[in-house]
């Protein structure tokens, strides 16, 4: 997969292409359905597959006060597109040029001239160009004028609810991890380096790996979760506490994971924590004895979940 970070980088593609466009935050099941259609259409017509997306959320520029926190960072986004077998990932900054380009110019100058597009594969609600004026109708009109194929993918729903990045952000903030995973079509995960914590847990029989996280992302609601932790590609069963450790009046959002049957030193290692199920909200305990008693109950609950 070739990643293109600015339009200047590509004079114009020589290969004929099929293109899907959008923000694609989270790369959820709806996006995956669209991308599968893109890949099938490209295979049938012997085209290279192109994703046109942004490295920042468009609302950062359009409505900065309401700009959402992203579900995944750009590294995760690139990894996921790579795994899906995309040929060209155009991931440009959403800047004033992107914000102000007329929808007609976007089709003619970018999709047709730069990307050599022969097929557009888009979701039913696709919008692009200045003030989001470009839509399916305009693509239809231009597909006849310039003779390119147009496929419109209907919305994928679960229990009658359209899967969207917006709904996944709301579920994350409510701690509805089972639903998040259903909508993503994979386990929601956080990747970060292991850093030093207070080192109290170890003295109580549950040493925890504290993980540094990108606090600008949309993170799950505080609480205790059943998780799997991936270290050097090996998957371990674990339990994870996220939030502010209210018993200790901590100010920072913190992620710490207790990996079952594990005793290696992993400071500084990059690990990925996959969230499977929420056990409870976090609690401010009157004393640490009660906190540790509860943690032991949580650990038993998680071990029971894993049948260990
Ligand atoms: C499974 C689990 C559940 C936890 N639940 C809470 C909680 O409800 N309230 C809280 O203040 N801290 C909670 N903690 C955080 C503890 O305060 C913390 O793990 C302990 O102080 C060790 O911190 P350290 O890793 O920095 O040494 C929890 C930790 C774990 C591993
Ligand atoms: N549930 C879905 N089923 C099929 N296609 C989808 C679905 N959700 C989004 N798409 C399509 O994927 C492309 C990228 O969409 P976009 O990034 O706007 O996703 P979104 O999840 O709808 O985000 P938001 O919640 O911010 O509106 C668009 O063409 C869009 O129509």
From TrEMBL:
SMART domains: Flavokinase (SM00904). Catalyzes the phosphorylation of riboflavin to FMN followed by the adenylation of FMN to FAD. It comes from the Bacteria. Gene3D superfamilies: HUPs, Riboflavin kinase-like. InterPro entries: FAD_synthase, Riboflavin_kinase, Riboflavin_kinase_bac, Riboflavin_kinase_bac/euk, Riboflavin_kinase_dom_sf, Rossmann-like_a/b/a_fold. It holds the Pfam family FAD_syn. This is Riboflavin biosynthesis protein. GO terms for biological process: FAD biosynthetic process; FMN biosynthetic process; riboflavin biosynthetic process. It catalyses: FMN + ATP + H(+) = FAD + diphosphate; riboflavin + ATP = FMN + ADP + H(+). The lineage of its organism: Bacteria, Bacillati, Bacillota, Clostridia, Peptostreptococcales.
